Amino acid sequence: MIKAVATDVDGTITNSDSIIDVEAIEAIRKLEESRIRVILCSGNALCILKALARYIGCTGPTIAENGGVIEYRGKIKILGERGLGKKVIGHLKEVYGDQIREAWSNPYRYVDAAIMRTVAFDKVLSEVSRHEGVKVIDSGFAYHILDKRIDKGVGLLEALRWIGLKKEEVAGVGDSMTDVELLNASGFKCVVANGDESIKSGADFVSRSAFGKGFAEIADAILSGRIGGT
């Protein structure tokens, strides 16, 4: 039986311009009304994600910075080493100068530091690889530089320990390669129609609709027992 839904945000409950689909918000509230907690999991900063969760009505933990920061009922847990990403960004600025544009949210981040996609990913990857213990991932919206031990799956498993749920009681929803670990840490893997083909192949359920409407379709399948039913 599914007791929680852990979902990515950008590209999963939003469109490609990061605008949240109203149907996705309605679906989240239906899940919550059925006592299925919704856990937002994103590469964004905690302050942004927590505000979003609060006003949408999500009661599950909030997983920010690609799994690097977890918040639940006012308590915050930081996973991974702080400051690694910001240090590497300093190096990138020495190499590429003004081509490196930081995300406005970086002053509010702990583990994951983000830059705009203004330099080719392979060039950024080459420079990041010079630094031990750090990785860079491309979310399609920004490049995220963080402790290589951290990902959304690590964050989700820690969040589940906080609320006393098992992996088998969770449905994960995502759209991109940055959600692979989130899906692998979930009992049921769900992907919206606009998702990367490589993660669709291993999914338990792929929606017919894209973006937020696809999430709403997945939520309906969960509520009707087509996903996770006994």
Q: What's the short version?
A:
With 230 residues, the chain is of the alpha/beta class. The chain contains eight helices and eleven strands.
Describe the protein in words.
The chain has two domains: 4-79 and 150-223, HAD superfamily/HAD-like (Rossmann fold, 3-Layer(aba) Sandwich); 84-147, Hypothetical Protein Ta0175, Chain: A, domain 2. It starts with a strand and ends in a 7-residue tail after the last helix. The protein has an eight-stranded mixed beta sheet, with helices on both faces. Strands 6-8-7 form a three-stranded antiparallel beta sheet, covered by helices on one side. It has helices spanning 22-33, 46-56, 84-96, 121-128, 152-163, 180-184, 197-200, 211-223, and strands spanning 4-7, 37-41, 62-64, 69-72, 75-78, 113-115, 134-138, 143-147, 170-174, 188-191, 205-206. Helix 1 packs parallel to helix 8. The protein is an alpha/beta fold. The protein has eight helices and eleven strands.
> Quick one: CATH superfamily of the largest domain?
HAD superfamily/HAD-like
CATH C-level category of the largest domain: Alpha Beta
> How is the biggest beta sheet arranged?
8 strands, mixed
Shape: globular
- Kindly provide the radius of gyration, computed on alpha-carbon positions and rounded to a whole number of angstroms: 17 Å
Summing up helix and strand content along with how strands pair, one would put the structural category as alpha/beta
How many individual domains?
2
